[in-house]
Design goal:
By secondary structure, this protein is α+β, with helices and mostly antiparallel strands. The protein has helices spanning 50-58, 85-89, 125-131, 134-151, 225-237, 285-293, 296-299, 306-316, and strands at 5-8, 25-28, 31-32, 63-68, 71-72, 82-84, 99-104, 107-113, 164-166, 171-173, 180-181, 186-195, 198-203, 215-218, 241-252, 257-266, 279-284. The structure holds zinc ion.
Amino acid sequence: MLNDISFILGAQRNPPAKLAMSTATVYIGAMRLAFTDSPLDHAGLNRSDAGWMDAQHRHDGARAVLFAGGALALGEDGAPLILPAREAAAMPLKWPGLIFLGLQDGAPWFAASLEPGVRERGPDFRMSAMHAPPDLTCIFARARAILLWAGRRRVCSNCGGSNEPVDGGLRLLCPSCGMEHYPRTDPSVIFLPYSGDRCVLGRQAGWPPGMYATLAGFVEPGETLEAACAREALEEIHLKALRAEYVASQPWPFPSSLMLGFMVEIEPGEVRPDDDLEDARWFSREEVRSLYDGEMARWSPRHFSISRLLVEHWLDTG
Ligand SMILES: [Zn+2]
């Protein structure tokens, strides 16, 4: 039986032949799951040092990726606009200006949002990310999540004062009340419900015709990941979860989720989709294979989402 999903250490770029539970990186065959195995060193030990951060801005190899209206800004060649950091700093930037993302092979990356009208806005960010080289996809994702967060927090949510960027913009500090604001990551569970040799997939209205995927939802305060899976299974398809097994995670910068992927064994029974699903039903492995090899191959490339990884995992372990 084919089993080509591997979980390997971040430093190890060549996936092993067999599945091995380890830490950071997820591969499907030789393809790296999008947004995983980032090449960036976040420089957590240095970024609070203002002198060190100044040196990063002056670094000859410093680059900045620029955004326009939530999408990647485009250069005159139609490619994502990546400039030397000094040139980017001279452009009309939205508050808080250049944000430090991390180091790639010792060279700093920054990001910023351009004021409206400065440069053309690229296509939908998800489409851009789907087609960018894997390392750039990680950099773009981190940039977008942090820029969206910072852009909405110029005003302190505690006292209404004016926040100031510190640590290269990776932290905002309100001088009036002293409150520190950090970029947020919202945990979400994403899971494939299964029983025996069948699984349940659902679809939302508005998705491309014939597209079905795993179920997902945000984790609520006071909830474990397993409880979130069980609650979502009950809410979305009205079936009881029996067991949840963690598989892998994926940062999902739309805008700031961390998708925590599970296989969830559910009781067999009638699937009754919730109102926010257009359809949900049981599928056999053969049905899932023909679905994903057909029209859906265009909408859900194998490497892009953890939803697809969970489905492939289930197909391979049957
Ligand atoms: Zn404040």
